[in-house]
Amino acid sequence: MEKPINSATIWLILLNCALFVQGERTKDKMYQPILGASCFRRLNGTHQTGCSSAFSGSVGVLHLVNTKADLDFLLDTPPAPPYAPMIPPHLFTRDNLLRLKQAGPANISVVLLINKPEQMTTFSHELNCPNQYSGLLRPNSIETVTCDARNPTNSWNPWGTGLLHEDFPFPIYYIADQEEIEKLETCFKDFNLNYTTHAVRRLCAVEVKSFMSAAVNTEVCMRRTNFINNLSGSKYCDPLEGRNVFATVYPRNSPENLDVKKKRNANPNEKFILVTCRLDTASMFDGVGLGAMDSLMGLAILTQVAHFLRQTLPPQDSLPNPYRNVLFVTFNGESYDYIGSQRFVYDLENKAFPTRSTQTTPITFDNIEFMLDIGTIDDIANVKLHTLKSTVLANKLLQQINSYAKSPQFGFGLNIQSDVSHHLPPTSAQSFLRRDESFPALILNGVPANKFYHSIYDDVDNVAFRYANTSQDFTTLVDVSDAKGFQADSLQMKVRNISSIVAMALYESLTSKTYTGSKVASPLLADEFLYCFLQSSDCPLFKASSYPDSPSGLPLPPMRYISVLGGSQESSGWTYRVLGYLLSQPQVNVTKENCTILPLQYFAGFNGSGECRLSTQNYSSALSPAFLIDNYDWSSGNYSTWTESTWTQFSARIFLRPSNVHQVTTLTIGIVVLIVSICLVYIINSRSEVLFEDLPASNAA
Amino acid sequence: MTLPEFFGCTFIAFGPPFALFIFTIGHDPVRIIILIAAAFFWLLSLLLSSLLWFAVIPLRDVLAFGVIFSVIFQECFRYIIYRILRSTEQGLHAVAEDTRVTDNKHILAYVSGLGFGIISGMFALVNVLADMSGPGTMGLKGGSEFFFITSAAQALSIILLHTFWSVIFFNAFDTNNYLHIGYVVGSHLFVSLLTLLNAEALYIATLLPNYIVTVLTGVLAFKVAGGTSRSFRKFITCQ
Amino acid sequence: MDISKAPNPRKLELCRTYFRTGFAFLPFIWAINVCWFFEEAFRKPAYPEQSQIKRYVIYSALGTLLWLIALIGWIIIFQTNRAAWGATADYISFIIPMGSA
């Protein structure tokens, strides 16, 4: 129902609105909200990056940019600035963005990125060298030795624009939904065409609110946040903080004495093969960005390897060395200067991993036999094993890997090449190598082929994933000849193949025996895993690895940005459960009632009936050591210093912006009315005795 | 509405009442009290009409019903103020420093009418103004960009009309001039019902008759208060 | 209180008290003193206490002026250099700006 809006009866409307909210408010006639995702501000030890609106929101006149000429028009001869260009992804280039930045907030106040990817070929806002200023550094330099930023074609992200590390003076808002784009375009076409009269008429404009409290760099905003005079108690920024998830293939049998006062001591007998990957991803916009190819592939492979080893390995005491174990770690915050792995290394050095609360002995570097780091696997036909130096260990493992990769028995038909150089991929192993270049780290990494690295478009389509939804049991290994209906070139089969190769090689190095079985990793598990992380948390694998009948996840993929303390931490939570489920051993004799104390844990299981299992997984903190060390020198570059600014809201709305002529006219009329009435009333009042002549004499004053 | 628009509209609607207040009301405490008392009585009438609107559920959507009853309530309260002021005239005469208030009975009418007008004008416009905070103007989903300026002009006419009506109304009860009473109630109803046309954005169709009525009522009030065409000529020619 | 109705010695006493209180880093008291007794000191016909009142009023005015200059100077220096001073500026601020250096 539409309520009329008028002055004499507006009080009635007031009552309508206040009591029943039936009527359409005047505001609703003027503004229309636009849903989207905003770019926000992050800070490191020396810089601020990202975007912020003005305190009360930034307003710009909508302008649809279809070609570069449209952009030139806005920048060279803007008729009624400030403007808000709506840019499709193929024009969202470094050149164009820097030109917009240079035009300044007086000309360009808002930038809208609209989801029209038809002409897009590449879209990556990460640097050519991800984590360029951390990892293994050049001597006496703050830049990494493992990548040459001056030679982008040979870098780890050749398509990178580096916009993620720029500071923009305007908000950037990403509008994904086609309906919302339609709203914007309609408004633009209805009101903003015919540019010659822009200056004198009302125009369709957009207001974006995304004001960021923090500024300058992490040092300044942390100082202000911790400031004793900070009366309001307001936070300016929070460190990027999350959780690493780790699990072992065999339960650790190395209890620690519980005396808190005693120094912690490692168990020198324990030997671990460290298998690691990255848990998080990054993108420019809040809550968007799945990192399908840039990091989820690694996580999928690690999960498959863990599952395969759990299923095939003999009991620990029948191994040649009964103290050997495999430690799987997924590092969080690796996109932001290796937060998780830096903290892991720091904890190992301080004998703080795992924490005392796990009641197991700490692990040190001496316990680690070698580290196999799974990096980005963009193309499985083109994977290399990277090492800093040629070692016996690396050669042996490569030989083992290739023996399975090329084996006619399995028919994987792959060949893993070796790369021994300083040209190491930007993965967690760099944090270990930085501490000690002779650390036995082997990195399995694909040749860069991801044109959407760390972007909103690194999604289901980028990895060509199609959920098969077979509803078959994904918890068992399958025979190599049984493809379960998957095409040989499907993503599920690719994950199966590379995971099986890695897992078999690890099997051989643990047992000192060749893997002779015919079972390989299950493509069904890959299917379910990728579905959960790419399309919906309400999925069979997540259900199976939760407590029976626990509330199911949202029908959205989990957020994989590390975020801050108190953030969603969805991806580490789900990874914890999935690793816990796949790496645990069923305890048939334990009832549900007795299955409450860790490491015993109750899972729903594939068919949801519930099963008690002996689990090994746990969390460790992924907060950069920079925030633990007193008086840390923020600009030293030793540890990651990324923080995220706080904000109060993200919103965008469109409306008509009155022309300056109209505003000035209204104000002038008002002032004239005021002055005229003051003069008139003064004259009438002072001469009222003339005007109202038949008043009693005493009234004349 | 942007800041310049906000001030423009505020000045249009409340500039003339503000001028009237500082030159004719502000210097005398008794007049201020009467002004505020009148505003209070208008609020009471608003309360009653909203209670009625609240109680009669089937007619909630029929805006004309609410308008008619609110006009009747407002006129009833105008009568109540009239009775109260007339019965307290003696007391006022005793306390007032400036005895013009009680000597000229039109002043009481004028002051209470202005109180009525200011508060109703405020209710009419402040909600519009408050709802408009932000950088936009009317028109995204239809509506004229002159909406605010029209609302302000309408609020001004209501303020002036209330002042004139009170002068005519008080005098009519003093002199038992039922024609004038009928005119006040009738023109009030007419003007209020006219604003219902704003739903169709017929701003000219509402504003023009509105101001014609305002001028006519102003002339009538001028005559009632003792003005004549001769005195007006004298005033114009500065004699 | 209506200063014109007070006896002359009372005026002098008030003026002196205000002047002395101003030394407790309260320049507003001096400013008020100037406004309040300006008429008494310079406009009224002469009376015995007037010369002393005049002196206090002049000193109060001088004090106010000094404070004004000092405060304006400090505000200009502080606002123009706040970002450059970094941590020091933050430590002497009560209200730290949001979203800027």
Task: Please give a structural write-up.
The complex is a heterotrimer of chains A (701), B (239) and C (101). With 701 residues, chain A is of the alpha/beta class. Chain A folds into 3 domains: 25-125 and 161-221 and 649-657; 241-259 and 269-580 and 615-623, 3-Layer(aba) Sandwich (Aminopeptidase), CATH 3.40.630; 661-699. Chain A contains 16 helices and 26 strands. Chain A has an 8-stranded mixed β-sheet, with helices on both faces. The longest helix of chain A is centred in the last third of the chain and has 27 residues, at 660-686. Chain B has 239 residues and is mainly α. Chain C is mostly helical and 101 residues long. Chain C starts with 7 loop residues before the first helix and ends in a 10-residue tail after the last helix. Chain C has helices at 8-21, 27-43, 50-85, 87-91. Chain C has 4 helices and no strands. In chain C, helix 2 (27-43) runs antiparallel to helix 3. The mean pLDDT of chain C is 90. Chain C has one domain (7-91). Chains in contact: A-B, A-C.
Which features does this protein show?
heterotrimer; B: 239 residues; mainly alpha; 10 helices; 0% strand; C: 101 residues; 71% helix; elongated
Cα-to-Cα separation, first versus last residue of chain A? 55 Å
- Enter the CATH topology name of the largest domain in chain A: Aminopeptidase
Uncertain parts of chain A: 1-23, 696-701
- Radius of gyration over C-alpha positions of chain B, nearest whole angstrom: 19 Å
Derived from helix and strand composition plus strand pairing, the structural class of chain A reads alpha/beta
Number of contiguous helices of chain B: 10
Supply Rg of chain A: 31 Å
Mean pLDDT of chain B: 87
Order of strands, main sheet of chain A, comes to 1-26-10-5-6-7-9-2
Membrane topology (chain B): Multi-pass membrane protein
Subcellular location (chain B): Membrane
Organism (chain B): Drosophila willistoni (Fruit fly)
Transmembrane segments (chain B): 6-25, 32-56, 62-81, 107-126, 146-170, 177-197, 203-225
